[in-house]
Amino acid sequence: MPDTPLPTVTAKDFASDQDVRWCPGCGDYAILNQVRKVAAKLKQRRENTVFVSGIGCSSRFPYYMNTYGFHTIHGRAPAVATGVKIANPKLDVWMVTGDGDGLSIGGNHLMHALRRNVNLNIMLFNNRIYGLTKGQYSPTSEEGKKTKSSPMGSIDMPISPLSFALAAEASFVARCVDVDRNLPDVLEAAAKHKGASFVEIYQDCNIFNHKAYEYATDKTTKSENTVWLEHGKPLIFGNDNDKGIRMTGDGKLEVVDLGDKGVAEDDLLFHDVHDASQAFLLSRMKYPEFPEPMGVFYSIEDDCYEELLEKQVALAIETRGAGDLDKLFNAGDVYEVVGGGQDSTHGLHE
User: Fold this and answer.
1) Of 2, 10, 113, 265, which one is least surrounded by beta carbons within 10 A?
2) For the range 225-228, what are the long-range contacts, defined as Cβ-Cβ under 8 Å and sequence gap of 24 or more?
């Protein structure tokens, strides 16, 4: 890879010549624009950048980025992205998936990419619906959701993407909303993280599940229904910043009013991005009982899979010598196929 200084790039440099074919008003547009801006801000080289996707509305993403890309098959984006990163660890690899693609058929692959800590930037667009196939309920749809595939209401317990990622030992977990002004900051932090970064993005499907996240986007209710996470700072929210989240004596969380019964900021829960247990607890905070946390839940440094693999290969060569494919193919028992023709007798001889 060339190490010459990178010319000045803009978000437009990362826009491909393809017509963007999402429904007008889809939240994917906002995410796409922010990703392009972040890529330009980080001065990523287009020739060193790869976007990998599976199947779904979100998975058209690689077409709209002026970089290399793979539009793969349903649920297999983590496997392909892992292969790309292993083949060339110097590449900046982004993976784009949705709540259907990533958490149904792709759940197994996603779990292993996270636990291996492959140095990937994973974005999961969560609109709580199957949009591409016209409005069936998805793994993240709420209980009772009435759709074409659940006319009586879904009886499935929805998956929490963040809880899933944390349980899979992800080293970076975050969440934001498609139209939130803080989305670029979250994506930038994810891109700079060394290891598997997982960002859940609440995304509006204005055709099949419009306003699913209105409580977190409406300017009049957003401050009351979400709480922004900052490392080392207390969890405070509300239109007047007069509410907070406190840990009870039995290890549970509760909403409190600052100043009520002597409650002060020091009594609140202070966010620690290095605390996996706290991150999991925060991932269980759901509207309307709680304000939903946004920002970086968890971030630690750990060994990356591709680096460990490179070291293992180097050690194998050092201790066992360079490999020989011809010797490998002819090792052990070797059989010879004898005979031929329609009427002949076939057999195997050592």
Assistant:
1) 2
2) 225/287, 225/288, 225/291, 225/292, 226/291, 226/292, 226/293, 226/294, 227/291, 227/292, 227/293, 227/294, 228/182, 228/293, 228/294, 228/295
Phi, psi of 226 (to 5 degrees): -135, 155
Flag whether 32 is in a domain. Answer: yes
Residues 6+ away with beta carbon under 8 Å from 137: 129, 130, 145, 147, 149, 150, 154, 156
Q: For residue 231, how many C-alpha atoms fall within 13 Å in the half-sphere facing its CB? A: 11
Q: Residues 6 or more apart from 268 whose CB is under 8 A from it?
A: 234, 235, 236, 244, 245, 246, 256
Nearest to 188 by CA among 340, 36, 292: 36
Token pair recorded at residue 317: 């060569």
Phi-psi region of 215 (alpha: psi -120 to 50; beta: other; left: phi over 0): alpha
115-130 pLDDT, tens digit each: 999 999 999 999 999 9
Look up the CATH number of the domain holding residue 72.
Answer: 3.40.50.970
| Chain segment 269-320, per-residue pLDDT in tens | 999 999 999 999 999 999 999 999 999 999 999 999 999 999 999 999 999 9
Max CA pair span of the chain: 97
Whole-angstrom CA distances from 128 to 131, 135, 156, 181, 306 are 9, 10, 13, 22, 32
What one-letter code names the amino acid at 50?
A: V
Among candidate residues 203, 184, 220, 224, the one with its CA nearest the CA of residue 33: 184
The model's pTM is 0.91
Q: How many CA atoms lie within 13 A of 127 on its CB side?
A: 27
Structure tokens at 176: 């934001």
Structurally, how many domains does the chain consist of?
Answer: 1
346: pLDDT strictly greater than 60? no
Q: Is residue 17 part of a domain?
A: yes
Q: Assess if residue 308 is contained within a domain.
A: no
Tell me the three state secondary structure of residue 98. Answer: strand
Provide the mean pLDDT of the chain. Answer: 94
